[in-house]
Design goal:
This is ABC transporter ATP-binding protein. By secondary structure, the chain is of the alpha/beta class. It is built from 7 helices and 10 strands. The chain has helices spanning about 50-55, 80-90, 105-115, 120-130, 150-160, 180-195, 205-210, and strands at about 5-15, 20-35, 35-40, 65-70, 70, 90-95, 165-170, 195-200, 215-220, 220-225. The strands form 2 sheets. Strands 6-7-8-3-9-10 form a 6-stranded mixed sheet, with helices on both faces. It has a 4-stranded antiparallel sheet with strand order 2-1-4-5, covered by helices on one side. The two termini are about 20 Å apart. The mean pLDDT is about 90.
Length: about 230
């Protein structure tokens, strides 16, 4: 379909565990339309994280095709992948990956600095994000002065500051209590409602059920791919 943001055709990925080959991805066929909200679920070792890393251009398939926003990504070299990743993709991880010596605002701003964006433009982009995240009073605080929920909101801010088309979230509520987790989920879903494509890898069945489309993986294979009629609109 013409509006497919992601097209994955016949992708395989094998790792060696000792001397044993492990088929982390096995003939993956997947299309994701722009603006979709998917959860990817399955037992440990099912290939969820490998799929997420491949979609995020952090890993390259052994063979097959991966098209993202109209570009064939498999032939790209590492420098090209890094540039395309910065332009197209935001990441949210379970363990935040914030830089301890930078304030909340500086952590959010960092991708803009790395992209060489001028200070005046950075300031113009930064403040609305801080307001959206509800971090006005915490923007000057270091990560160790923030709660887990606040740290994850900072991580989300950093992920979306470059206005990516695709947001990949790997266990985004895994380190949070239920209240903070609910706030983070609400924020991710708000971003999806604004048009960003959201892919969430999770062990949390409740979070997985919220997505409008659910994928289940077992042994590197997509065994279920269904629309969720009961998901949040």
């Amino acid at each position: 379909m013409s509006d497919a943001l992601i097209r994955v055709n016949g992708v395989n990925k094998t790792f060696l565990l000792g001397n044993e080959p492990v088929h982390a991805l096995n003939n993956i066929q997947l299309q994701i339309q722009s603006g979709e909200y998917l959860s990817v679920m399955g037992p440990s070792g099912s290939g969820k994280s490998t799929l997420l890393n491949m979609l995020g251009l952090l890993d390259v398939p052994d063979n097959g095709e991966y098209w993202l926003a109209g570009a064939d990504t498999v032939p790209m070299d590492e420098e090209q992948r890094a540039l395309y990743r910065r332009q197209q993709i935001g990441f949210v991880f379970q363990s935040y990956h914030l830089i301890p010596r930078l304030s909340a605002a500086e952590n959010i701003e960092l991708p803009l600095i790395l992209a060489g964006i001028a200070p005046a433009e950075r300031k113009k982009r930064l403040q609305p994000i801080i307001e959206k995240l509800g971090l006005d009073s915490r923007a000057g605080h270091l990560p160790n002065q923030l709660s887990g929920g606040q740290r994850q909101r900072v991580a989300i801010g950093r992920a979306i500051i470059m206005k990516p088309h695709l947001l990949l979230a790997d266990e985004p509520t895994g380190n949070l209590d239920s209240s903070s987790g609910a706030e983070v989920v609400a924020l991710l879903e708000e971003l999806n409602n604004e048009g960003i494509t959201l892919v969430v890898v999770t062990h949390d069945a409740d979070l997985g059920q919220r997505a409008k489309r659910r994928i289940r993986m077992v042994d590197g294979v997509i065994v279920q791919d269904e629309k969720n009629a009961g998901a949040n609109a």
